[in-house]
Structure formats: C-alpha cells, structure tokens
Specification:
CATH topology of the largest domain: Aspartate Aminotransferase, domain 2
CATH superfamily of the largest domain: Type I PLP-dependent aspartate aminotransferase-like (Major domain)
Strand content: 5-15%
Number of helices: 16
Number of domains: 2
Strand order of the largest sheet: 2-8-7-6-5-3-4
CATH architecture of the largest domain: 3-Layer(aba) Sandwich
Largest sheet: 7 strands, mixed
Shape: globular
Oligomer: single chain
CATH class of the largest domain: Alpha Beta
Length: about 425
C-alpha cells in the first residue's frame, strides 16, 4: 500500500491549533464523566428533532403564501440553488430589525456555517503573497485555521485588558507596510469575544472605523455572541456605524438557532470596479469562490433557518429570549462560583485572577503555572474537569491562562466544575 510522508502534506494537516482542538475532543471522549468547561457549544436542552420539520414547514408555507408555484417551491428545496443562497431578504430584514444594519439583500451570501464565510472573505481579499490579515489576539482558532489552509499570514494585534486599542491597530498596520506587506483587513469579535469575553465600547468602535479609513483596512466583524449580553445595553454593530463601506459582516445561526443546520452568512456590500469600469457588489464577486467550495449552501438547511426567521418575524432577539435568560444565569453562576471557590486574600497570594465579561459564553482565568495540554489531561483524570488552554488562541503566549465556558451545561454543573477547578489550582499553585 502507498505510504505518504506527513512532511510532504500541507502544513494545515499538522497545524498545532487544529491538532490541539482535536485533542480537546479526544480528552472529552476518554473522560466522559469530567465536567466540560471547555465546550463553547450551545445548550442541548433548547432543541428537539421535531423542530427541524416544523421550521421547514413554516418556510415552505412562507414560500407558498408568497405566490410561488409548487414546482418552484420544490426546485428551491430539492435542486442546486443560487450560489449565494435564498435567504438574503429574510437575513437583511433580520439585520435591520435586530442590529440597525441596512443593506441590500443582494449583498448577503448564505454560507455553510460562518467558517466558510471566513474562508471566502480571506480568499477574496488576499490576492497575493504580500497580502496579510490582522487579527485581534487572542484570536478565535477558526480564523487562524482558515488562514493557514489558504496560506495567508495572520499578524496579531495584542488585546489589552480593556479591549482593543485602535492606535495599536494603526501601529501594526504601519509596521506591516514597512516590512513590504499589504494589510488587507482586521478580524475581530467586538461583542463578548471568543476567547477573552471582552466587548468594545461604542467610542472604541467609532475610533476603530476611523483608523480603518486612515490605514485603508477592511474590518471583518464576526458577531456570534452579540445577542447574549448580561444587560440590555445597546452595543452597536460596527456595520451599523459604518458609513464608508469598511465592514464585512460575518454572521452565524449556530448559537441563535442550532449548530447542526450549519448555516452562516456574510454581508459584503462593497462596490467592486472592473477593468472596463463596470460595478458589482463584492458579494457577487465572492460567489465564484463559493461555487468552487460548496456549490451552494444546502437548501434544506436554509429552509430550517428560514422557518426560524419566519416564525420570529425576522428577529433573532425575539426568538432567543429564553436562551438569553439561560445564558445570563449561567455566566453569573460561573462568575459567582469563581468568587466563592477562589476567595480573597488566598487568590491574590496565589496569583489567580479572572476577567468579568458583560455577556457571552467565556471568561479567562490567569493562573501561576503552565496551563498546558499535559495539565489538562491530569485535570480531566484526577479532578474531573475540562477547560481550554489559552495558548490555543495565541501565536505565541497565553501559557498561564485558561478559558472557561458556561454555555453547554446547567448552572449547577458549572458551579461544581469551578469547585473542581479550584482543587486543581490549590494543588498546583
């Protein structure tokens, strides 16, 4: 039989970030009784198999009530469809209602999860070897992994304790240009970032848009957690503040609906000028890339999400009120458990501290020892709790910190998981 050298395969096959995430899944499988504060997936209790059929039926009724002939309805669900998808009108309406983002429906591309949206955006923007993308660090591994597959260099912009500093973005962009490279875009999660949990103030968002204009950058705004704040304070999307077409908006229905549908989207309403002066939308130009990746996003999956949008009046904020209450309670439970099981002055003397996010699924705990894969395995085996090493989210660093997630479990399991973590820290501090 043929044997292939691993060294002869693409670097993404042995990408340490990808293999680390596989390691997390493997550890969870080997220690099924361990409480997982590592998984950032939504809570299973919100979903039932019967929902799939109901939402599809709602979407089919929506099409029929819109005057479409039965043959057309059948074709929309069962045939290859429009490359950019069939939910553009509903998603554009959702963005206007929930986020005050007003864009033409033609600028919406429906993707096979937000991961595909990232790959398409990176591939379209980074045309040559000198094109790079900036990313707030610590950074979601999906973005760095997508860039690695495409051979696109990611240049980190360090996140400060209070969030992203727009002037740091400008400095990194200038440094990249001085090195002969072209910074094309900045990737960030402005609301309750994964993994840090940090949310940017409105003033920083506005200044960031100014810097993007000054440095000729596009902003890749990823917003999977924006619905899940601890309060009802408005947090304007960068796209809603964008008056110059600097923002490409990346969206996902994984957290607001359910991950199994594998439906995400991007909004690219920028104008592309051709060699002969013709003008098109960037989303239309990107469709050529998508057609070579997945041809089109599954119409059956789109029908499920379409049904959710139809039933909620195109408002994910309306559709997620019960989830919002649950996730708020879980985050408060996790933060309260940290206070209970890591009391002062002991935690101060041990060098343990954590941030206090105002929403989302994650918090970061700093510890006075290496929180690496070896310790994670010991934590699962001897203490019955899982977490994510923060080093997974850095190009270099994060060795003495871990990420906790509060989304996947009931509140009492979260509290018990933090108690078990405190025993691990007490032994290793």
């Amino acid at each position: 039989m043929v044997e292939l050298s691993r060294a002869g395969l693409h670097v993404s096959v042995s990408d340490p970030v990808a293999t680390s995430m596989n390691f997390l899944n493997e550890i969870a499988g080997r220690y099924p009784d361990a409480i997982s504060l590592a998984a950032g997936r939504p809570y299973d209790g919100f979903y039932s198999v019967e929902d799939i059929v109901r939402y599809q039926r709602s979407y089919v009724d929506h099409l029929r009530n819109g005057g479409l002939a039965e043959e057309r309805v059948r074709g929309l669900l069962l045939q290859y469809g429009r490359t950019n998808g069939q939910l553009g009108d509903l998603i554009a309406r959702m963005l206007e209602i929930d986020e005050d983002i007003v864009v033409p429906s033609e600028s919406v591309m429906v993707t096979a999860g937000c991961q595909e949206a990232m790959i398409i955006a990176l591939r379209a923007l980074c045309a040559g070897p000198d094109d790079v993308v900036l990313a707030v660090e610590p950074c979601y591994v999906g973005l760095t992994g997508a860039a690695r597959i495409l051979g696109v260099d990611v240049v980190p912009v360090p996140e400060a304790a209070g969030g992203l500093d727009p002037d740091a973005v400008a400095e990194v962009a200038r440094r990249v240009r001085a090195a002969g490279k072209r910074p094309r875009a900045l990737y960030l999660v402005p609301n309750f970032s994964n993994p840090s949990g940090i949310s940017l103030s409105t003033a920083i968002r506005r200044r960031l848009l100014e810097v993007a204009g000054e440095q000729d950058l596009l902003l890749l705004e990823d917003d999977p957690y924006g619905l899940f704040g601890l309060d009802d304070e408005p947090r304007p999307a960068l796209k809603s503040l964008d008056t110059d077409g600097r923002v490409i908006y990346l969206g996902s229905f994984a957290k607001s609906c359910f991950p199994g549908a594998r439906v995400g989207f991007l909004v690219a309403d920028q104008t592309v000028v051709g060699d002969e002066g013709g003008r098109t939308l960037l989303a239309d130009e990107m469709s050529a890339i998508k057609s070579m990746l997945t041809v089109n996003t599954s119409p059956i999956s789109q029908a499920v999400i379409g049904g959710v949008l139809v039933e909620s009046g195109c408002s994910m904020r309306t559709a997620n009120q019960n989830k919002l209450s649950f996730y708020r309670n879980n985050l408060r439970t996790m933060l309260a458990a940290l206070e209970e099981h890591f009391p002062q002055p002991e935690r101060g003397m041990r060098g343990v501290r954590w941030n206090v996010p105002t929403g989302g699924f994650f918090a970061v705990v700093d510890v006075p020892f290496a929180a690496d894969e070896k310790l994670l395995e010991l934590s699962a085996e001897q203490f019955g709790v899982l977490w994510t090493p923060m080093s997974f989210f850095y190009s270099d660093g994060g060795d003495h910190a871990l990420r906790l997630s509060c989304s996947y479990l009931a509140a009492e399991r979260i509290a018990e998981g933090v108690r078990r973590l405190s025993r691990l820290v007490a032994e290793h501090a």
